């Protein structure tokens, strides 16, 4: 189609300067020809199927070409285009260039135009499973959940559990769990959320250098304390081995602080302690004096030096 003179006979190509530009990049002949026609269509404000065809060529050469994606989105508004086909095309581009945010944004535009989530939530979860720290994919998933909702919130928690069971240091997964609990807070029982906090806190005790998990707990404790004033032991069987020390006192932050003080000091536990009890002078001094160690853990010898 690109080489068919009949298709492009009405287009007068813009003249190119005789002298090469100072930093002009070499381009494939196909890409150069497509861009030449594309510039004319933009100038003429023509949104057509042949314009869609041109952008598909340009985007394959450069998936981050913002102008092509913008033009393509305008074509979707002006033409009767099968949005399922458009979504499949865009998915292929994201698969080939997962770090380019433009195709992810276009997928969002398609869903908005169709007022449908298609099967994007399930599909993007597969993409995250193959690339668990893809921020564009996580952002798209969060947007889909906000915009279209989910039928089963516990499936979202199961998805997080699947990811952190393979990599407990996946910060994006912990952020997503935080989002699910807070955005749908009225759909969860407070006792259930406290149980989850207890399980995740126990994970932190086993991996005290886990920054993402620590940040999640730092954020969740004040959120839960606004509705839950009892001791964490009331709901968390996983922490019952601390029961005699805590003696059933609340609130959550008080219980957790007592447990933290029993642990070997680590940077993340000290961060959490400083968040929960900023008036703890001894631990605050320890935190400020040591600074972040290379391995995220303060060994006994390092602590004795103080």
From TrEMBL:
SUPFAM superfamilies from the UniProt entry: Protein prenylyltransferase
Keywords: Magnesium, Prenyltransferase, Repeat, Transferase
Protein's UniProt keywords contain Magnesium: yes
Family the entry assigns: Belongs to the protein prenyltransferase subunit alpha family.
GO CC entries: CAAX-protein geranylgeranyltransferase complex; protein farnesyltransferase complex
Gene Ontology terms, MF aspect: CAAX-protein geranylgeranyltransferase activity; protein farnesyltransferase activity
EC code: 2.5.1.58, 2.5.1.59
Top-rank EC class of the record's enzyme: transferase
Pfam families linked: PPTA
Protein's recorded name: Protein farnesyltransferase/geranylgeranyltransferase type-1 subunit alpha
Cofactor annotation: Mg(2+)
């Amino acid at each position: 189609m690109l080489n068919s003179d009949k298709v492009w006979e009405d287009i007068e190509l813009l003249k190119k300067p005789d002298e090469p530009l100072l930093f002009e990049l070499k381009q494939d002949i196909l890409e150069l020809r497509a861009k030449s026609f594309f510039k004319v269509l933009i100038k003429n404000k023509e949104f057509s199927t042949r314009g869609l065809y041109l952008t598909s060529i340009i985007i394959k050469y450069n998936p981050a070409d913002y102008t092509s994606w913008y033009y393509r989105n305008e074509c979707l508004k002006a033409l009767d285009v099968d949005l399922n086909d458009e979504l499949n095309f865009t998915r292929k581009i994201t698969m080939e260039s997962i770090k380019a945010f433009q195709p992810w944004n276009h997928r969002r535009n398609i869903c908005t135009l169709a007022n449908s989530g298609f099967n994007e939530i399930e599909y993007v979860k597969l993409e995250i499973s193959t690339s668990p720290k893809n921020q564009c994919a996580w952002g798209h998933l969060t947007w889909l959940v906000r915009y279209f909702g989910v039928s089963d919130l516990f499936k979202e928690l199961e998805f997080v559990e699947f990811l952190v069971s393979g990599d407990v240091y996946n910060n994006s997964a912990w952020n997503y769990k935080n989002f699910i609990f807070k955005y749908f807070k009225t759909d969860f029982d407070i006792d259930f959320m406290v149980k989850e906090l207890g399980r995740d806190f126990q994970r932190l005790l086993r991996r005290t250098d886990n920054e993402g998990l620590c940040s999640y707990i730092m954020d969740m404790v004040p959120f839960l304390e606004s509705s839950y004033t009892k001791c964490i032991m009331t709901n968390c069987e996983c922490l019952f081995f601390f029961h005699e020390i805590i003696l059933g006192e609340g609130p959550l932050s008080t219980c957790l602080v007592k447990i933290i003080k029993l642990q070997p000091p680590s940077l993340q536990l000290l961060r959490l302690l400083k968040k929960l009890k900023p008036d703890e002078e001894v631990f605050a001094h320890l935190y400020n004096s040591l600074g972040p160690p290379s391995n995220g853990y303060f060994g006994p010898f390092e602590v004795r030096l103080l």
